[in-house]
Design goal:
It is globular and about 65 Å long. The chain has about 350 residues and is of the alpha/beta class. The chain folds into two domains: about 150 residues, Rossmann fold, CATH 3.40.50; about 180 residues, Dehydroquinate synthase-like - alpha domain (Dehydroquinate synthase-like, alpha domain). Helices cover about 50% and strands about 15% of the residues. The protein has 15 helices and eight strands. The longest helix has 21 residues. The structure holds NADPH dihydro-nicotinamide-adenine-dinucleotide phosphate, 1,3-dihydroxyacetonephosphate (13P) and zinc ion. Zinc ion (ZN) binds next to helix 11. Its EC number is 1.1.1.261. Belongs to the glycerol-1-phosphate dehydrogenase family. Catalyzes the NAD(P)H-dependent reduction of dihydroxyacetonephosphate (DHAP or glycerone phosphate) to glycerol 1-phosphate (G1P). The G1P thus generated is used as the glycerophosphate backbone of phospholipids in the cellular membranes of Archaea. InterPro entries: G1P_dehydrogenase_arc (IPR023002), G1PDH (IPR032837), Glycerol_DH (IPR016205).
Length: about 350
């Protein structure tokens, strides 16, 4: 139970070790020792990220006398979670490591939660705050669901690897952080209109994280470790805000509902953080806020700000706007309970230059 009878968060689950820097992937055994983990590890990794990081973690742990198994997965489905659980039971794994993208991390996170064993997050890209959060996005019955899980015991983010990942992934991470602006505005609205429990600390941390990122937009560039470090720290900070809140409220509002809606209408076109960034521009307009500031910041970072840059047809932007309010009905946002009219959806998308 995360909240007490007054709706206050009573249990804040945070990672114990957060290790960020050049070459820290080679410190993985030290982190496992620090956490007093057992001898048997199971690594969940992806097709591309196996060569980039999975094999390094495998060899590093094995060289230090650990028994290490590796599972390569390409999609975060419930079937894959079950297969990882079976592998972990077969090998008597004491802990799981998600090494790679959001998919590998989410599979390992949920499987470890269900097996009640520790989980370590070793991201190869800073594309969203799932690298540190206590939620796992898993496809079940053809729908993506966000499932409460245990937070990683440790996050080991090698900024050299992350800086060398395709820049698009880092820019997407920035879009996920910029979302905090409208997520917090939605939360404040829900607190005022629906008396929803609100954490000033979580909201302030979340808002401040987005502001630092936008203020630093000029310095976020490809292949720069300083940029990777800045974005990773912002994602960690967003994750902490969610832990304080005991939910994703400080980092997921109407702009995330738009992204989730787009996933169901035009799956696979764009990355989560890219869609959330574009959603933030439009939801900020609906809030009557400074949507140009969001758009300018994303443009400086070279994150998408239009349907065309997302690779999504204009009509799908409108369809997603029209169903966004149905995505998570218990979470009150600027979209209200009845959502936008078609005219209003077209007006917001056109005024903010998301569609032409
Ligand atoms: N748990 C949470 O709170 C959240 C979860 N998510 C979920 O995460 C999932 C995917 O996130 P997404 O934003 O698409 O991005 P990902 O982080 O999953 O990465 C996308 C692709 O980039 C590849 N990649 C990752 N790192 C590198 C690297 N260093 N070099 C080369 N290629 C690399 C991956 O390869 P490979 O094939 O090896 O995996 C993958 O194909 C989605 O299912 C989404 O729903 C999103 C937000 C929050
Ligand atoms: O992506 C997230 C925060 O950035 C998690 O949000 P959801 O709870 O909407 O899945
Ligand atoms: Zn997100």
């Amino acid at each position: 139970m995360i909240q007490d009878k007054h709706g206050e968060t009573k249990w804040m689950q945070l990672p114990r070790d957060v290790v960020v820097g050049t070459g820290v992937i080679n410190d993985i055994t030290d982190v496992c020792n620090d956490l007093k983990l057992g001898d048997n590890a199971l690594i969940v990794t992806g097709d591309s990220t196996r060569k980039i990081a999975g094999d390094i973690v495998h060899d590093e742990l094995e060289d230090k006398g650990r028994s290490v198994e590796m599972y390569t997965s390409s999609s975060a489905t419930m079937d894959e979670v079950r297969r990882v659980e079976d592998e972990a039971m077969k090998y008597g794994s004491n802990y799981l490591l998600g090494v790679g993208s959001g998919n590998s991390i989410d599979i390992a996170k949920l499987a470890a939660t269900e097996l009640d064993i520790p989980f370590l997050s070793v991201p190869t890209a800073a594309s969203h705050d799932g690298i540190v959060s206590s939620r796992a996005s898993i496809i079940h019955d053809s729908k993506t669901t966000s499932i409460q899980s245990n937070a990683p015991m440790a996050v080991v983010a090698d900024t050299e690897i992350i800086a060398n990942a395709p820049y698009r992934l880092l820019a997407a991470g920035c879009g996920d952080i910029v979302s905090n602006y409208t997520a917090v505005l939605d939360w404040e609205l829900a607190s005022r209109l629906k008396n929803e429990s609100f954490s000033e600390y979580a909201a302030s941390l979340s808002r401040m994280t987005a502001k630092i990122l936008i203020d630093s937009a000029d310095s976020i560039k490809p292949e720069l470790e300083s940029s990777a470090r800045l974005v990773v720290k912002a994602l960690v900070s967003s994750g902490v805000a969610m832990s304080i809140a005991g939910s994703s409220r400080p980092a997921s509002g109407s702009e995330h509902m738009f992204s989730h809606a787009l996933d169901s209408i035009a799956p696979g076109s764009a990355l989560h953080g890219e869609q959330c960034g574009v959603g933030t521009i439009m939801m900020m307009y609906l809030h009557g806020g400074d949507w140009q500031m969001i758009r300018d910041g994303l443009k400086k970072i070279r994150a998408p700000t239009t349907a065309e840059e997302l690779g999504v047809e204009d009509k799908y932007i409108i369809e997603a706007l029209l169903i966004s309010h149905t995505i998570r009905q218990e979470r009150y946002t600027i979209l209200g309970t009845s959502g936008l009219t078609r005219d209003a959806a077209e007006a917001v998308a056109k005024t903010t230059k998301v569609i032409s």
